[in-house]
Amino acid sequence: MNYQRRRLLKWLATGIGASSFQAFAGPVVPAATRSYAVVVIGGGFAGATFARTLRRLDANVCITLVEPSRQYHCCLLGGEYLVGKRNEETLVFGYEQLRVEGIKVVHQKARSIDARRKQVRLADGAVLGYDRCVVATGIGYKYDSIAGYSGGVASRVPHAWGGGEQLRLLRQQLEAMPNGGNVLISVPVDDYRCPPGPYERASLIADYLKTHKPDSRVIVLDAKPRFAKQAQFEQAWRRFYGYGTEHANIEWIGALEGGTVQGFDEATRQLLTEGGPVSGQVINIIPPQQADDFSRHNGLTAEHGWCPVNTQTLESLLVPDVHVIGDAAYAEKLPKSAFAASCQARVCALAIYSQMYNLALLKPKYMNVCYSLCGDNYGISVVLQYQHDATTNVIEIETLRVTPLDSSDEDYRREAMSAYSMFDSLVKEAFG
Ligand SMILES: Cc1cc2nc3c(=O)[nH]c(=O)nc-3n(C[C@H](O)[C@H](O)[C@H](O)COP(=O)(O)OP(=O)(O)OC[C@H]3O[C@@H](n4cnc5c(N)ncnc54)[C@H](O)[C@@H]3O)c2cc1C
Asked: Which residues line ligand 1 (CB under 6 A)?
């Protein structure tokens, strides 16, 4: 591994500048100094990473994590599960390590925040007081923006944009589809969770079809005219799946070609696009998205549907003493990824720690790295470094690096291996 790569991995391990993290992380404030209480709502990548980071910084703080599920079903590498290349157990994580570290984990749904009293009410009626509340409750779906689609229909026609049951259903449907059938994937406009995710899914489905149902095709119907890492994806699709030819296992129809999906007819199994109806045996509608219900019902969201935050501290711009991290947050211009969620979690933990001990806030450093698998031993990536501007509150892209189009087979293999390493390190940071 070369020097640049080692530096990158070190950077990835922290999500913010490694040196500033180390300077800030120690020494941990000893027990028996002033104590404070933090309630974290949501135990996904953002919430779990936040809780563990704050615990590493401060042995004294009382942290309660509220999460309804006993196990977290993650989306990363879910595409491999979908096409039978991975067992579901490898995508499921528990909260034991958080408990070992002295974080109280309560398996309940949070119902409401009383910002004036600084209390969180849970579904069982329990009330938790806080000095700071951190909301990390992820995304919700705007089902009504596609006529004929709804939460109820999604139980039969899955979006599979979260792990667990939805992903299982889509896998069963793919397996049951006869050779010659079409798989349709409907992709929304931005902002949505994991911008390159639909195209990774399409790639892995094309790979599966090529081997198991060679006369079948996955058709991506896109509400956007372009997409992340497009040239890299299309190069892989041409190389492996006959993209652009009559016998291709994959096709992409962008917004300019009429790909925007406006409706769904369940009876005829058709997606109704601007360019006309398209029939599919397996239909995967990824609906437009917004912050989850909890954020929306507790006054944390703005008109665009996401939770505006101060990008130095991740504090809500709408509700005092509440921070929002992860996919629910509108942290201009960070994408919605587990990597970015993990960065935000660290920045937020450092900020709350500083605020509680009257320390100066550090200038945050953000980064996002996103790997996509296009087939066996073939990965591509985008690495973005950002510059935080405290005056505009915007996190501007400073540098962007995408896998070069003239990469060697060995480079693509390494990218795929890095995707797995990244998964391991994000999971380890969050769940131990
Ligand atoms: C197909 C796919 C592939 C992806 N691949 C990648 C990838 O390769 N790399 C990458 O970086 N990212 C990837 N992502 C994105 C990544 O999964 C998300 O960005 C990440 O999960 C966001 O974390 P989060 O903690 O904000 O939200 P979540 O992971 O959704 O966690 C939110 C948690 O909040 C809980 N919750 C919700 N409401 C309440 C409530 N009222 N009370 C208490 N708890 C509540 C939920 O149960 C959940 O556990 C992918 C996503 C998809 C869909």
From this structure: 41-47, 66-69, 72, 75-76, 78, 109-110, 136-138, 161, 193-194, 197, 201, 292, 294, 326-327, 336-339, 341, 370-371
